[in-house]
């Protein structure tokens, strides 16, 4: 799933190319992806794209006051065209959800792999009308999100495991499964540690890791074309998706906890004092 750094990379890429261009085509290929009906896609036609913004994991195109907002979900992605295909996008069972063309810039397709379709499109007068955006918590890289604000989030959700807290978009906007693993490894904290149990030193370490890991990942992502963002992300991860490989910090073999529809990775040496955490389906620590 694209997370804040990759979405920020897409935002920078699109802003550089689309701001000032005029929308000439907006073609829906997956009708289930469009979640709003008050404003039609045709409201974008002939209008200038004036800004591209990111809200959490949402991308928001300001098209002369009408906003095209989209969330790529778990399996969605963006394919950029310097010259868009001349043929119109056709509804069907393929991965294509939306084709947008803006002259003279080019255009892009939004696609989604797999059979479970969760990619979401919105045409709204204001991004705040999108339910997922209205529910977003603070951006962890915002200038006013200091350690005290972070500590307040931890205190308010003291009984929440920090892995889940980092991923909860209503508490922190933009962090997902992969970067929460990376943040916790950098902070040397177990993913199952309760937020309210963190010491002052651990809170400081976690806050610093959140800022450092996300800032570094954005630095790697911005400037890459969409086709290279996924590989760029995978190659930079230390523990997420690295089950069975040595931790680059301490050399301990990276372990995994599996859930019904996801997984997490961690380093026992860095994070749990050498203990292996059980698969959550077993509901207890391995002995």
Automatic annotation (TrEMBL):
Q: Which cofactor does it need?
A: Zn(2+)
- FPG-type domain: which residues? 238-272
Alphabetized InterPro entries for the sequence: FPG_cat (IPR012319), FPG_N (IPR035937), H2TH_FPG (IPR015886), Ribosomal_uS13-like_H2TH (IPR010979), Znf_DNA_glyclase/AP_lyase (IPR000214), Znf_FPG/IleRS (IPR010663)
The record, for PROSITE patterns, names: FPG_CAT, ZF_FPG_2
Which reaction(s) does the protein catalyse, per the Swiss-Prot or TrEMBL entry? Hydrolysis of DNA containing ring-opened 7-methylguanine residues, releasing 2,6-diamino-4-hydroxy-5-(N-methyl)formamidopyrimidine
| Protein name per Swiss-Prot or TrEMBL | Fpg/Nei family DNA glycosylase
Q: What sequence ranges are listed for the domain Formamidopyrimidine-DNA glycosylase catalytic?
A: 2-151
Q: Which SMART domains match?
A: Fapy_DNA_glyco, H2TH
What are the UniProt keywords, alphabetically?
DNA damage, DNA repair, DNA-binding, Glycosidase, Hydrolase, Lyase, Metal-binding, Multifunctional enzyme, Zinc, Zinc-finger
Going by the entry's taxonomy, the superkingdom of the source organism is recorded as Bacteria
Q: Which family does it belong to?
A: Belongs to the FPG family.
């Amino acid at each position: 799933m694209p997370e804040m750094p990759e979405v920020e990379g897409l935002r920078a890429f699109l802003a550089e190319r689309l701001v000032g261009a005029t929308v000439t085509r907006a073609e829906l290929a997956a009708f289930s992806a469009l979640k709003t009906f008050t404003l039609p896609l045709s409201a974008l036609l002939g209008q200038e794209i004036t800004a591209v913004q990111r809200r959490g994991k949402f991308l928001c195109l300001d098209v002369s006051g009408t906003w095209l907002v989209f969330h790529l979900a778990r399996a969605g992605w963006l394919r950029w065209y310097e010259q868009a295909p001349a043929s119109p996008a056709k509804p069907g069972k393929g991965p294509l959800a939306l084709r947008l063309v803006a002259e003279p810039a080019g255009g892009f397709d939004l696609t989604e792999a797999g059979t479970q379709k969760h990619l979401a499109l919105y045409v709204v007068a204001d991004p705040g009308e999108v339910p997922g955006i209205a529910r977003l918590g603070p951006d962890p890289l915002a200038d006013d999100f200091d350690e005290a604000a972070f500590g307040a989030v931890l205190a308010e959700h003291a009984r929440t495991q920090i892995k889940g807290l980092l991923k909860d978009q209503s508490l922190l906007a933009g962090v997902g499964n992969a970067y929460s693993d990376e943040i916790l490894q950098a902070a040397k904290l177990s993913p199952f540690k309760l937020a309210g149990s963190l010491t002052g030193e651990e809170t400081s370490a976690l806050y610093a890791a959140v800022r450092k890991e996300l800032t570094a990942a954005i630095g790697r992502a911005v400037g890459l074309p969409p086709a290279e963002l996924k590989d760029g992300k995978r190659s930079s991860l230390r523990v997420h998706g690295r089950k069975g490989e040595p931790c680059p910090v301490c050399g301990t073999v990276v372990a995994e906890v599996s859930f019904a529809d996801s997984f997490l990775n961690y380093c026992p040496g860095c994070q749990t004092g050498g203990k292996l955490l059980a698969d959550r389906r077993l509901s207890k620590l391995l002995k």
